[in-house]
Design brief:
It contains 2 helices and 16 strands. The protein has 249 residues and is mainly beta.
Length: 249
Amino acid sequence: MKTLYRNWVVLLSCLLGMVACSEEEVTLTKTGQVKFDLNVQDIESIITRSDDINVDDFIVTIKGDNYQKEKSYAELKGEGTLELPAGIAYTFEAVSSATDPDFISQTPFYKGSKEETILGGEIVAVNLACAMTQVGLSIDLSALSSLFNLAVSIRKGSTGTLYPMTVKVNQKTEIYYVEPSDDLQLVIAGKTSEGYELGTLGIKSLAAEGVDSSAANTLWSLKITIDNSGVRSSISERIGLKIESSSIN
């Protein structure tokens, strides 16, 4: 009887060991599948501009333990699902360009990421929501155009590099996409219609004018006007400037 009991114990132990090994083997060797969905978040307080953005060109990077793959979103959509080794935590990241944006650009840069653990035999839906990493600025100088020929630049802090923003015939700039900072400054310079150089007419801190320039995924229209003091009597004196800000809609 004792011998029969021992035999049953040995047999049960073997069976449990085989099940454990089998489960471990499934975890290590089986693959899981990923189905991607990529979208662009609406810009804060602004109507959506997603129609102007082709997410098919976005680059998706998948990183895991000893695993890395990079494909365009168009390629991933064409494949339907992507097969990946199971039992691994992955980071999925999508960007609108292979290179990081400069401090100022005329092209918006979008980025989104998510972490998921892929289990064997399962299909995991990965939704990558990408947001603009910059603050968008459009400058309107038309209120001063009858008085001066103007130029506008932007910088980070009082000692930062000046980056010129092209002023169009209508005395407005295109939308420029700038690295967010609570210390962005506009520098307005100009000369008279006769060509007399006035130098810097004004330096305006966006934060001091009520513009949250530290918030990414926002767009602002900034109109530069003369304050109540108007133009002073001497041309060598600087004029008083103010910014009228509003969200672009």
